[in-house]
Design goal:
Layout: H1 2-10, H2 12-19, E1 22-24, E2 35-39, H3 46-53, E3 58-63, H4 65-68, H5 71-83, E4 86-89, H6 95-109, E5 113-116, E6 128-129, H7 134-142, E7 146-152, H8 154-157, E8 171-174, H9 190-208, E9 212-213, H10 217-228
Parallel strand pairs: 1-8, 2-5, 2-7, 3-4, 3-5, 6-9
Antiparallel strand pairs: 7-8
Protein name: Lysophospholipid acyltransferase family protein
Keywords: Acyltransferase, Transferase
Domain Phospholipid/glycerol acyltransferase: 35-154
Length: 229
């Protein structure tokens, strides 16, 4: 209930009035049934504006740090994440990755929309980075279509490290659904997972016209952090 209040009564109308988002291809999102929205990730506000423009409920997988921070700010952040339909996941790998996969599969099993960022983290510089194969495994295990989504100019509105957004317009480009049913039962094949993931990233690059880098965004962030020390 609080999700819909935030979307249509409390925050939604205000955000739409201030940032005037433009959307192309919204009709490509199925009106019912389980589907994955695979999006590029430029800014924290990607997880706000995409669900805001989709008529159906969208659940995003978000890093668990947002749900465990302390103090009043931590409580407010957790409340906001829950209100906007985001689900905590642990990115430490191993059993944590398996738990994250199961969290996403549970959303899809209910016939709902699951939002995923294949890059695994926000782009550090506006470029599009190599996708993680977890999204492909989820697609093949659930047997659902995936819709590519390109967020446009969200990094200019709220860059990494900024607490408050600037005023400006953002865009959302929704591509046509991708069908990977030809790979049914092959979710254990790492080459198939990489092929599916790369096809998704190609579509994201085509939609958003970002420069593509065949390296993980997390690797770039780690290198930059080590150089700054």
């Amino acid at each position: 209930m609080f999700y819909w209040l935030m979307k249509y009564v409390i925050a939604g109308p205000i955000l739409r009035g201030i940032f005037r988002p433009w959307v192309v291809g919204l009709e490509n999102i199925p009106a019912e049934g389980a589907v994955i929205l695979a999006s590029n990730h430029l800014s924290f506000i990607d997880s706000i504006f995409l669900p805001l423009e989709v008529d159906r409920h969208v659940s995003f997988l978000a890093k668990s740090d947002y749900f465990t921070r302390r103090g009043l700010k931590g409580w407010a952040t957790k409340a906001f994440m829950n209100a906007t339909g985001q689900l905590p996941i642990d990115r430490s790998g191993g059993k944590a990755s398996e738990a994250s996969l199961n969290t996403g599969l549970a959303v899809l099993a209910r016939g709902e929309i699951l939002g995923i960022y294949p890059e695994g983290t926000r782009s550090p510089d506006g470029k599009l980075y190599r996708g993680r194969t977890g999204v492909a495994r989820m697609i093949l295990e659930a047997g659902v279509p995936v819709v590519p989504v390109a967020m446009v100019d969200t990094a200019e509105i709220m860059p990494i490290g900024k607490r408050l957004p600037k005023i400006g317009r953002i865009g959302i480009i929704v591509g046509e659904p991708l069908d990977f049913s030809r790979f049914e039962g092959m979710e254990g094949d790492r080459f198939i997972l990489r092929s599916v993931t790369d096809e998704i990233m190609y579509e994201l690059q085509r939609l958003g016209a970002q420069e593509y880098m065949d390296v993980y965004a997390s690797t770039v962030k780690e290198k930059r952090a080590s150089l700054s020390q």
